[in-house]
Amino acid sequence: MPGLRVLPDKICKTCGAAFNRRVMPNGRRQDVKLFLAQEHCSRTCGNSRKVLKPKSYLWRARKHRKDTCEACGYKQRLTVHHCDQDQTNNDPENLQTLCSHCHDFWHAMAKRLGKKVAGRMVCLGSEKE
């Protein structure tokens, strides 16, 4: 057929399967522009959310954030510290709520001591009575 563009297969970002332009129910092929913009082989793969971006990990970690810094008790500029340094591990046991000062201090201290993993920061103040 004249005018039929043959395009190379694309690889799905989620499952790694090769795919090409779809054939519509009326027998025509999928539009070239739509195909070139497509990143997944199907809607199922596109909606699986298997490929997470750093902001997704941050959002998931923030769900476990507490109201005060676990080290000093400060209530502002709170961040989530991943004790094992793995941003994808959002297990509540791996997360610690720290203010930005304690978080920066803890990572700087670990770096000075030559540790690759900072671990959990200890409580600096006395517990509420």
From TrEMBL:
Domain of life of the organism in this record?
A: Bacteria
Give the GO molecular function terms: endonuclease activity; nucleic acid binding; zinc ion binding
Give every HNH nuclease domain span: 57-104
TM regions (residue ranges): none
List the SMART domains hit by this protein, alphabetically. Answer: HNHc
Give the matching InterPro entries. HNH, HNH_nuc
Q: What is this protein called?
A: HNH nuclease domain-containing protein
Q: Which organism is it from?
A: Pseudomonas nitroreducens
Q: What is the lineage of its organism?
A: Bacteria, Pseudomonadati, Pseudomonadota, Gammaproteobacteria, Pseudomonadales
